Amino acid sequence: MMRTIDDYMNLHYRMEIIEDPDEGGYIVSFPDLRGCITCGETIEAAIANAKDAQKAWLEAMLEDGCEIPEPDNLDKYSGQFKLRIPKSLHRELAEHSKKEGISMNQYCLYLLARNDRARN
Fold it and tell me: Model pTM?
C-alpha cells in the first residue's frame, strides 16, 4: 500500500534544532530526511517552518517517485554497550572522573558527546 503525504507527516521523524551563532535564530533539520532543512528567528518559528519544510520535502519526493526513508527507530537501541579498554586507560578515566566529581560513566558520556559535537 502506498503511503500518502498525511501518512508520512504522522510518522515521528527526529528533528534537530541548533542555534545559529553567525546569523542568529535557529536551524532545524531532519536527519532521516536528507536535505530537509530550514530556520527561524525563534525556536517556535523554526519548528513551524520545519513542519512546512518537511511537508514540502515529502511532497517533492512523492511527486518525483523517490523512496522516502522510514524514521530511525530508537527502540532498537538499549543505550548500553560493553567496551573493553586497556587497564591504563581505565585508570586514567577513573582518575579524571574522580577529579571532576562525577561517575566514570558520566565522564565517558561527556567525552563521547564532546567528541561527537566536534566532529560535526
Answer: 0.60
